[in-house]
Amino acid sequence: MSTDKHRGVALRTRLQHAGRDTRVEGGSPVNPPIVRASTILFDSVAELEDVRARRSTERLLSYGARGNPTAFALEDLISELEGGYRTRLFPTGLAAITQALIAYLKPGDHVLITDAVYGPVRNFALRFFERYGIRYSFFAADGSDIAQRYLPETRLVYVESPGSLAYEIVDLPALVQGAHAHGALVAADNTWGAGGYLYQPLRHGADIVISAATKYLSGHSDVVMGAVTTREAVWQTFNLSADAHGMTVSPDDAWLVLRGARTLASRLSVHAATALELSRWLAEHEAVAYVLHPALPEDPGHALWKRDFSGSNGLLSFALKDQRPGRAEAVVDNLRLFGIGASWGGFESLVMVAELSNVRSVSDWRGRGTIIRLHAGLEAPGDLIADLEQALSVLPNAY
Ligand SMILES: *Cc1c(COP(=O)(O)O)cnc(C)c1O
To answer: Is residue 3, in this structure, part of any structural domain at all?
Structure first.
C-alpha cells in the first residue's frame, strides 16, 4: 500500500527508498531478503482463521500463492511510482493485461481498445473475447475518433500512450472525461512510461494502470513480470479476481526487478539522451523517410508528450525512403551493436522490423512502409551512430 512516508520527495528519491520496509530484529540489510515460501505457519487455529478472514482486503502473508514479502516490497515501490492505491504482480506483462481485462469486463460488456495496442493484446481480444461474451472495437491511436465509438454497453477504455511501435499519444485527461461520462473505466498500459517514472496515467484520471516490469523497471533483460496498480475505488474488484485466478510471482523474480529499479532514473536519462541523438541523426540522413520519437519536436505527439510526461526513453522508429522488399532487413542484418530481438528496456541496444499496416486496423499505415524499431541501450551514442551509418551504407543506389 502506498504510504505518506515519502510525501513530497522526487520519484528519483522514491526509487531508492520505497520497497525496503522489511525490518527484522537487530540491524537490517539494505535490500529486502528473498523469502521463498509456500506454506506459512500460524501459532493457533484462531490466528490462521483470523488471517484468512482478513486476507481478501488486507495484504497479509497467508500462503505462497497469495504473494510473498519480497513481492510485497516491489508492489509498494510500484504503487509509489504510479501514485496508486495498491499493486499486484503477474508472471508477465501480458498476464497483467489479460487479468485486468478479465477482472473488469463481464458478458454483455463492450470495450474500446486503442489501435496502437501491444500486438498480443489484440490477439487476446480476437481469440478470447467472444467466448467470454465481450464485444470490442478499436479506436484511433491518437483518440481522435473515440467519441463516436461508445456504445451503451461500453464499460472500459483501454489505452496505450505512447502506442506500440509508432508512439501515438492521446490526450488522456480529455479521454478520461469522455469515458467516465459514458460510465466506462479507463485502463492504461504504462510500459513506455517505465511504470510511473516518466508518466503517471492515474494522476491524469485513469483508473487502472498496467506495466511490463520486464522492460525498464527491471532493465537487464533477465526477467519477465507485469504489474497492475489501481485507484482505491476499483481495487477490490481486481484484487478478488487476481486471487481467484491464483496469480503471484516468485520472490527471486521480484528481487531482480527491485534490484533493477534502483537505477531506473539514471539508466533512463542515458537511454533518452541517446535515443534523441540517434533520432536527430537519422532525421537528417538522406536514406531516411521519417523518424518517430515523441521527444523530437516534429513528432505528431510532441506537444502532448511535453505537457504530460516528465521525460522519454530509448525507443524510436524510422522508415527508409527505399521501400523495395528486403531493404530494411538488409540494413538490420548489417547492424553489429544492435541485437535483433523482441522486447526492450534492458541495457543493450536492440532492433527489429515491423509492418504497421498489419497491426493497425483503424489508422491507415499503407504507403508508410516497413519501420525499423530501435531501442537505444547504454552504449556510447557515437558507436551506435557509426554502426547505423555503416549499416545504411549497404543500401545500393537507394536514394
Ligand atoms: C512488452 C510489453 C508488454 C508485455 O510484457 P511481457 O512481460 O513481455 O509479457 C505489454 N505492453 C507493452 C507496451 C509492452 O511493450
So the answer is: no
Encode pLDDT of 167-183 as tens digits. Answer: 999 999 999 999 999 99
In-domain check, residue 399: no
Query: Would residue 47 count as lying in a domain?
Result: yes
| Domain count for the chain | 2
Q: What letter would DSSP give residue 88? A: E
Distance 189 CA to ligand 1 centre (A): 9
List phi, psi (to 5°) of 355: -105, 105
Query: Residue 68 is part of a domain; what is its CATH number?
Result: 3.40.640.10
Name the domain boundary from 210, 231, 261.
261
* Ligand 1: lining residues by beta carbon, under 6 Å: 92-94, 118, 160, 164, 189, 191, 212, 214-215, 224, 226, 343
For residue range 153-211, list pLDDT tens digits in order.
999 999 999 999 999 999 999 999 999 999 999 999 999 999 999 999 999 999 999 99
Please tell me the distance between residue 24's alpha carbon and the centre of ligand 1 in angstroms: 35
- β-pairing, 135-139 with 315-320? unpaired
* Ligand 1 site-directed mutation target among 117, 190, 215, 247, most atoms within 8 Å of CB: 215
Euclidean distance between CA atoms 377 and 350, whole angstroms? 7
Cross-strand pairs, 282: none
| Cβ-count burial 46-60 (b if 16+ within 10 Å, e if not) | eeeeebeeebeeebb
Nearest CA among 91, 154, 93 for reference residue 119? 93
What DSSP character marks residue 70?
H
Atom of ligand 1 nearest to the CA of 224: 7
Residues 6 or more apart from 270 whose CB is under 8 A from it? 378
